[in-house]
Design goal:
Layout lengths: L5 E6 L21 H8 L2 E7 L3 H11 L3 E3 L13 E4 L6 H9 L5 E4 L7 H13 L3 E4 L7 H14 L9 E8 L7 H12 L2 E6 L3 E5 L2 E3 L2 E5 L4 E6 L8 E7 L2 E6 L4 E9 L7 E3 L3 E4 L5 H15 L7 H26 L6 H13 L12 H5 L10 H7 L1
Parallel strand pairs: 1-2, 1-4, 2-3, 4-5, 5-6, 7-12
Antiparallel strand pairs: 7-13, 8-11, 9-10, 11-12, 13-14, 14-15, 15-16, 15-17
Helix pairs in contact: 1-7, 3-4, 4-8, 6-8, 8-9
Bound molecules: nicotinamide-adenine-dinucleotide.
């Protein structure tokens, strides 16, 4: 089949742009933008933007990119583009989206988080829509074939049409490395599977990786009242991203980010007569690693056949808004605790750092003062007031 060749510009030539695939065998499923574009066959890597000359050169050689530039503005020379992949550091995304729009591409494949704040992401979604630019956001599980099947099955259960699982009773998510950076993947996944969530309560922040993006445990619920918990692990221990769904007909657990699944079915208890329990379950492989190739396939279909995108600016914005709310509730909680007679270091850390992370969502009157932050002693891990001030 002769696929229409779409012209691609990649902005930011690091890990997710191509680095993760650079040394993987050609037969391995692609995990990056460049790897997926090549494997799909319906894209042509016309140009890339990377200020680091050596990295730009290596990327061009590895992925046979025709032109390389140090800035987005300079990349206008090789335009027009059908697709721009935005893979630069998150802090630059808001400015980069504005610059990319001046190149008038047909679509933007944006890495997550779209920007650092829900307000900036909302603005980006709005300007892309106004310019007629199709925006896909790489919450990649929305394209994993097994997760798409599970979504269909769970919807049938929610609609009272049975399916293999029946009704969902509760969901348990486990993550680390930031409510925005990884929590947004988890919130987006649960919203994809179970529909919109509302926040009931947020727990204390865990600063396990980013100084401005703590991991936060939280309790949420779906519109039908299904409880969903987000549980915090510590990024210094190991990376973890898992989801357990307790359903009427058994338990489904996504393990290892979606690389594996464990399904536990109902059996009679071997010990207690008349009791129904869950069996030990079986681990099967997941199709998570097929998601990036499926994503660019969806992008190609969206541009050549007007197919809808599975992960959009709107779905990403919904997840980011909720994550931001979870973060700011966590801050308020830490702040309330800090108003006690003794202000401990953890509370002040939470105040100072979360104030920086979520400043856009809070009134300045409730932010901690510099004196309050400077008054605290250094912690055991060596982070002192200066770090907190910088983070804030
Ligand atoms: N979807 C996912 O699961 C996933 C996984 C990893 C990263 N990400 C996201 O992808 C983005 C990049 O992450 P990464 O891990 O590839 O980072 P990275 O540091 O490996 O790559 C970023 C690249 O952007 C380049 N860059 C810096 N300034 C630039 C500029 N002004 N213009 C163009 N390029 C510039 C850097 O030199 C670097 O090569 C982040 O937003 C991150 O959150 C998403």
């Amino acid at each position: 089949m002769n696929l229409q060749q779409l012209r691609v510009l990649v902005v930011g030539c690091g890990n997710i742009a191509g680095g993760f695939d650079a040394e993987r065998p050609a037969s391995a499923p692609p995990l990056t933008h460049a790897g997926a574009y090549w494997r799909h066959g319906g894209f042509r890597l016309v140009a890339c933007v990377e200020p680091d000359a050596a990295r730009r050169e290596a990327f061009m050689q590895r992925w046979l990119v025709e032109k390389g530039y140090a800035t987005i503005d300079a990349a206008a020379a090789a335009g027009p583009y059908d697709v721009v992949s935005l893979c630069s550091p998150t802090a630059l995304h808001a400015a980069h989206i504005a610059a990319i729009l001046s190149l008038h591409p047909r679509s933007l494949f944006c890495e997550k988080p779209v920007t650092r704040s829900a307000a900036e992401t909302a603005a980006a979604v709005e300007v892309c829509a106004a310019a007629g630019v199709k925006m896909a956001v790489n919450h990649n599980r929305r394209w994993a074939p097994d997760i798409v099947r599970l979504q269909r099955e769970l919807r049938a259960g929610a609609a009272g049409q049975g399916g293999p699982w029946g009704a969902v009773r509760s969901a348990i998510g486990i993550y680390n490395k930031g409510i925005l950076n990884n929590g947004s993947h988890l919130v987006d996944l649960v919203q994809m599977l179970l529909g919109p969530l509302e926040l009931i309560a947020a727990g204390a922040p865990v600063f396990d990786h980013w100084p401005d993006d703590p991991t936060v445990p939280a309790l949420l619920q779906t519109r039908a009242g299904v409880p969903v918990t987000l549980n915090a692990a510590h990024a210094a221990d190991y990376a973890i991203f898992e989801l357990q769904l307790l359903t009427e007909r058994g338990m489904i657990a996504m393990e290892d980010g979606g690389a594996g699944w464990r399904v536990r079915r109902i059996v009679g208890s071997p010990h207690f007569k008349g009791y129904a329990v869950l069996d030990g379950g079986q681990r099967t492989s997941g199709e998570y690693h097929a998601s990036t190739l499926a994503a660019v396939g969806n992008l190609h279909d969206a541009l050549t056949r007007e197919m809808p995108l599975a992960s959009t600016g709107e779905t990403a914005l919904a997840a980011q808004r909720l994550c931001e709310l979870i973060g700011s509730r966590s801050l308020s909680r830490a702040e309330r605790a800090g108003r006690g007679a003794e202000t401990d270091f953890a509370t002040s850390t939470a105040q100072a750092t979360l104030a920086g992370a979520f400043a856009s969502t809070r009134s300045p009157a409730t932010l901690p003062t510099l004196t309050e932050v400077q008054a605290v002693a250094p912690s055991a891990d060596g982070r002192g007031p200066k770090d907190l001030v910088r983070a804030a």
